[in-house]
Amino acid sequence: MGTRLWRRGPAIAALTVATGLLGFSATASAFDPVYEAKDYSKTLERARIYSTPDYQLKLRTIGLQNRINATTTQLKDPERNFMANLCATGEDGCAGDIRLYDWGPKGYGIVKPILFTARNGATLSGQVWATKAGPTRRPGIVITNGSVQAAEQHYWYAAQTLAKAGYVVMTFDPQGQGQSDIFGEGDDRLEGVPSQTDGRPFFDGTEDAINFFLSSAKNPYKPVPSCETGTSHAAKQNRRVAAGLDTAYNPLAKLLNPNRLGLAGHSYGAAGVSYIGQWDPRVDAVVAWDNLGDADPNSQTGSFPPGAKPCPADPSQRTAAPLTKPALGISADYFLPPTPNTSQPDPESKAAQSVKYSEAGVDSGEIIIRGGSHLDFSWIANPAFGASLRGADETDWYTTAWFDKYVKGDPTADRRLLSDRWFNDAQEAAVDPDGDGNMFSRYYRSRLDIGLAGGGRFDCEDIRPDAMRPDPPSTPDHNCTGFIPRDQDGWTGNYDYVAIDTSPDA
Prior knowledge:
Elements: H1 10-15, H2 33-41, H3 47-50, H4 53-76, E1 110-117, E2 123-130, E3 138-144, H5 156-164, E4 168-172, H6 195-198, H7 200-213, H8 234-242, E5 256-266, H9 268-279, E6 285-289, E7 327-332, H10 352-359, E8 364-369, H11 391-408, H12 413-417, H13 426-431, E9 447-451, E10 457-460, H14 497-501
Parallel strand pairs: 3-4, 3-5, 5-6, 6-7, 7-8
Antiparallel strand pairs: 1-2, 2-4, 8-9, 9-10
Helix pairs in contact: 5-11, 7-9
């Protein structure tokens, strides 16, 4: 594809900090199978962590306890119908990163389990995260899973890091995932079934999760009427609360500032939050993990993942939303399952949705992980689910910085968004076949187009150092300027989500 030379007018162009738009080469470089073999091998890096005997022993131990807990839960609450879900018992790769299981017991932070009734009557399971230390009121983040093997514990790496950064965070299993019900109730039993093709659990489920997250003792949670029949399942929620089964409202509501809210989602969840984030006026910003979706759920038919099925009882919940909220996409070189390239990919293809935000005058970006896969964003400790070593850390870094800027309103977030630390990451270099610490895809163009807290804009359309690219520029001004040296980005030392998440709550 040729150069994308869009601009939003001379006034904005004059404020552009970077020069990355000016030097794109219209000629694609030849495909290099030697480089491809090395790049693809990076999807095996995460296995270095969980393939050790010590990790495997802990994984089996926690998996067994998870199965016991799930079985006990089902026996005590036979009304629930989650045991046929792929990750219902939380064993093997379904356990998530077992290094993060001591969050509550070891005093790393606060975590509260939640159960609530979705609009169609399905019981949804999740947790709310925060720290004891921190402001009296904090902004909130809701995280929506991907589909199939994507239970909420696969996203604890992000939830705990965001909680440490001063947020109240909610993780939950959409209908048909993890320990949330497969079916709804009564005439709405089949609404959202199967979730992988219906889509409503990731769209409407995100909205239901927001409603629960923003509930409080003064305003207990009440599910909105179902989409299929318009039936209210509030009676089920009330009955189960009275029986001590469901949660009446967000147990950490006193810590939450309900006026500052961000959404993050993965895969099908990314499609859901891409729409709901623009449609719901309560949301301030969005981060979509592989990748930003359309803000019109009706336009996603035939795409992957597809949009949500209609909402006949309330068609207003499927209206196209204008692009007004800052949105960041984070993607990777490989999709699902990770499959080697056999030809040179289109360098602009991953950032197409992000560019639409910029064309609409809304801050956006697209960060693409070198050698990562669709599974970099869900922590699955199983060699069949390949991922890079540092993809989760890079994801946490940009996710937190994006929310710091657009949800928390922190002017120092610009330093972290523009940091050059991921051009040469020591931990990545230690495992790379060529000792290369660059974390940005060589195949695809990462980008950032954002207004700066101090005025002006940073607009870089190709975040790839020249030496790291297979298609070097034809002009010397190709590289963007304005990146911040890592020793000035406000973070001391290496960035490691496990060290952050397992640090004392103080």
